[in-house]
Amino acid sequence: MEELKKKLLAYFTDLTIQIHDDYRMCINTQKETVVSLLNYLKNMGYEHFALLSCIDWIDKGEFELIYILSAYMEVCDKYQEKEQGIIIIKARISRDDAKVISVINVFENAEPYERELHEMFGIKFEGHPRLTPLMLEREYEIPPFRKDFDTLKYVDNTFGKIPSIEERKANYERT
Amino acid sequence: MRELELFFGPQHLGMVGNFSITLKVEGDRILKADANPGFLHRGFEKLMENRTWMQNFPLVCRINVVEPDHMELIYSMAVEKLAGIEVPERGKFIRSIYCEMARVGSHLFGLWAYANMLGFDTVAHWAMYHRDLLLDLFEELTGARVYHIYLRPGGVRRDFPDGFTDRLVETLHKIGGKVPDYNATFFENSIFKKRAEGIGTVTREEAIRMGAVGHTIKATGMKYDIRKIEPYDAYDQVDFDIPVRTGGDAYSRLLTIRDDMIESVHMIFKLIDKMPKSGEVYTKTPNPFKWTIPEGEAYVRCESSRGELGLYIVSNGGEKPYRVHFNTPSYNHGLTVLEKALVGESVSDVGNIMISLYVVAPEIDR
Question: Which domain holds residue A34?
Fold first, then answer.
């Protein structure tokens, strides 16, 4: 992993890299670099796109995109050497203007992940062929996985308020 | 010939689970397939942000209905990693035995679904009966049949009851004694072979490109298993093999699943032999109502019966998780691999291919 770190730092300028003890490499970068970085790592053998996730840091007004890569390992002897671990790539984008370039040209299976994030967080992935709803059936004013979406308030407004136990007791005694 | 749009599922006899596929067909051939999930979306990842670390267990185990145990395991592993908790040695072995039991049970359930779908009712009934025998053991151990909530951060809830391992070995021998019958009626039956061979083929290159894991990639000859790559619990202390095939079609996938089940049973015997005879089974954790976990993030993974299962979890130092994201194996298989594997196949094989890819709808929706 140390070798890969040296290579990456020589090739890209705007990276900060930390290596954790359990073979996790954490790379902080800018959103413009992500596609070329993923391409580079794919050619280095990190072919398995495991996860694309997003964190809503509402206090800072930013979304943090998380790309997780690992390697397919085939030969049993190689398991013990553990040269290749997991790479976690992080890029921050502004919350008001949530736009980022799609990575489906690099990893084909990123497609449903990007569709889901578009639906749940309202992030627009430029170059994605079908950003249609994946899971939800209703339209939401605020995308539901954002931190300012209040689940309880939404349920009360949409489906009617559920009376408290005291109110229900009072109603029961009255009838 | 005229092109037609065909809605396959969720109310279709060939569909297992709450899932739907929109097919574009010409005659009997499929030209294009669009997976359409979301019939079971419960927003667990959002709900978990509003519950304390221990309160999340009843939600976590309901993500996958067929095998809740690996979901409990991955969540416990993530919390342990964030909070820096170690599991005692005997606890590790109990966890591994419990997860292998869950794997056998889940494969038997999958076998039921597959045999039932193809009309092999006898085999389906055997599989369901044998799964029930395992559920009886789960009930004795944990008090529940399906959603056990037996694992917890720091170990397991309680030790094995007296004589439990003997009864477990007896039950597994009873199931194992039926393997020749399963082979004769199902796996080596020429009717089944004709139905499954050459169907839904995924080559090695396609599987890698589309991020396949589990049996889909093992059926193309690649020994990709997290239990070997990144050993957790007691898996580094026993010897086991990873069964693979080279065909890449539905038949190869089914044989991989059968071999995996047999390997799991053998592994349980080895684990019972090596298990420490006494000792603690869990590390004490703080009061769950006041438990705060230090700030940080973790990505953990384990091998569930469907393939690599991952969990990305973030804590901001509070009593609740800040963000939880499950990377479930069915997500790739159901939304990417399935859409590609269906193109060019016959309409009558849709359910066949879907179950052979081992897609479980609740795992996609979460």
Answer: 2-137
Question: By a Cβ cutoff of 8 Å, what residues of chain B touch chain A?
Answer: 37-38, 41, 43, 45-47, 50, 208-211, 213, 217, 222-224, 228-230, 242, 299, 301, 308, 310, 312, 314, 322-323, 325, 327, 331-332, 335-336, 365
Residues A60 and A102 both lie in one domain: yes
B348-352: average pLDDT:
84
Q: Is the CB of B299 less than 8 angstroms away from the CB of A86?
A: yes
Residue B169's pLDDT band, with cuts at 50, 70 and 90, is very high
Query: Which residues in chain A are closer than 8 Å to B321, comparing Cβ atoms?
Result: none
Are A34 and A116 in the same domain? yes
Q: Most A CBs within 10 Å: which of B223, B333, B340, as the mutation test of the A interface?
A: B223
- Give per-residue pLDDT as tens, A24-68: 888 888 888 888 888 888 888 788 888 899 998 888 888 899 999
Range of the structural domain that residue B247 is part of: 44-365
* Residue A77 scores a pLDDT above 70: no
Instruction: Please count the structural domains in chain A.
Output: 2
CATH value at residue B234: 1.10.645.10
ipTM attached to this prediction:
0.85
Rounded-to-integer distance, Cα B156 and Cα B163, Å: 18
